[in-house]
Write a structure and sequence with these properties.
single chain, 409 residues, alpha/beta, Rossmann fold, 2 domains, 21 strands, binds cytidine-5'-triphosphate
Length: 409
């Protein structure tokens, strides 16, 4: 299911040759479950007929400020009503002229009036000739809109309608709709420029060439943190133990197997990151001197077979001297004395936050897609209990807590 399901989207269309692609955008938004209303500038109607959009959207298309004078007394507030109706507005393609109008608050047609009345997020996908896009006037308008929190889906480079080549081609339709989806997944780009290192999954400690000691970690929580961070614009490196999960989009993954390998991989990246989120269920012990062949049953002496264990290095503790201003987040699985034990780990592992859960609680077990966690912070030692949430939503909440702890870059 898409986060766009049931969302009300205004799709604004401006007068660009790329306006025909808005029909594809409309279909893509609809296929992800959005309810779409179309608003066109009068010049957009020169490129694509309103009939195309009214047929596809099964709704009236809004173009004129004063369309049907005998229609109703509510005509004068249509732009306000529609502005309040929307969960988001996407203008794609948007021209240099409409960008300039929006930047300066000019409301001289239905589309630009709605933008002023809009309370929902605004997403713009420009399309124009390269010279127009890189013109200092357009560039500075786009920059100002971004500062105001408007999302701009940058145009692509390529051959343009003018026959010239350069940046200005409307971004890929799917990519634009992905961007709209981001909003509804709570994925703002507030982690842009941040470097987040995430560990996930179990480790496997070999007993011999074919057997190992491990745990039930599925890796889902760590992968959710990596995906959520990447979706919020962070640069993400994920160091994963053996799991059966797909690498999230825009995440650089390194696979490891043992705790020692995980330590080495984390130590290599620690200087790079702004935050380390250790969701991995690192094995506390490894088998001493495992042979690289299969042990035969007959090799064990009479009586109870024994395996000699050695303690693994605590990754978080061993890196505490490198912490500096980095944010360290640990995870703890506690079945008893949850808060007391978590607080001890918070201190002993020099953590800023510890996320603790009890696998015995319903919905918080191994391999589940949901989790019920409590977050403790080093600053106030206060325990914040979260409700049962999807692991993705838990990840979002954790990132919300990490963000203010990171020094401004
Ligand atoms: N951790 C680590 N290195 C280890 C073991 C654990 O960095 N060798 C990290 C985990 O990734 C987790 C946190 O420490 O973020 C807490 O892990 P946990 O296993 O709960 O803590 P332990 O110190 O091993 O305590 P215990 O198993 O006795 O509860």
């Amino acid at each position: 299911m898409s986060a766009l399901t049931g969302k009300k989207i205004i799709l604004g269309v401006c007068g660009s040759i790329a306006a025909y692609k808005s029909a594809l955008l409309l279909r893509e938004l609809q296929s992800r479950g959005a309810e779409v209303r179309i608003v066109m500038t009068p010049s957009a109607a020169e490129f694509v007929t309103p009939l195309t959009f009214s047929s596809l959207s099964h709704n009236q298309v809004y173009i004129d400020m004063f369309p049907d004078r005998e229609h109703s007394s509510a005509v004068g507030t249509w732009h306000i009503d529609l502005g309040l109706w929307a969960d988001a507005m996407l203008v794609a393609p948007i021209t240099a002229s409409t960008i300039a109008k929006i930047t300066h608050g000019i409301a001289d047609n239905f589309l630009t009036s709605i933008v002023l009345a809009l309370r929902a997020p605004l997403i713009l996908a420009p399309a124009m000739d390269a010279d127009m896009y890189i013109h200092p006037a357009t560039a500075s308008n786009v920059a100002r809109l971004k500062e105001r929190g408007v999302i701009v889906v940058e145009p692509e480079e390529g051959e343009l309608a003018s026959g010239l080549s350069g940046v200005g081609r409307l971004a890929d339709v799917t990519g634009i709709v992905d961007e709209v989806e981001r909003f509804f997944e709570g994925r703002h780009l507030d982690l842009t420029g941040r470097k987040i290192l995430v560990t996930a999954g179990p480790t496997q400690e070999p007993i011999d060439a074919v057997r190992f000691i491990s745990n039930r970690s599925s890796g889902k929580m760590g992968f959710a943190v990596a995906a959520a961070a990447a979706n919020r614009g962070a640069e993400v490196k994920l160091i994963s133990g053996p799991v059966a999960l797909e690498t999230p989009r825009n995440v650089a993954r390194k696979n490891v197997s043992t705790a020692d390998q995980m330590l080495e991989a984390v130590a290599k990246e620690i200087d790079w990151c702004d935050a380390l989120v250790m969701t991995a269920a690192v094995a506390d012990y490894k088998v001493l001197n495992p042979p690289d062949r299969k042990i035969k049953k007959t090799e064990f002496a009479e009586g109870t077979p024994r395996i000699e264990l050695a303690e693994n290095v605590d990754i978080l503790k061993s890196l505490s001297k490198k912490k500096g201003r980095r944010v360290f987040v640990g995870f703890a699985l506690e079945t008893d004395d949850m808060i007391v034990n978590a607080k001890k780990k918070l201190v002993s592992k020099s953590l800023d936050l510890i996320v603790v859960n009890n696998p015995r609680v319903q919905g918080a077990g191994f391999g589940s897609d949901t989790n019920r966690v409590t977050i403790l912070s080093e600053k106030d030692q206060e325990a914040v209990e979260l409700p049962l949430l999807s692991k993705y939503d838990v990840a979002m909440r954790i990132l919300d807590r990490i963000l203010p702890l990171m020094p401004r870059s």
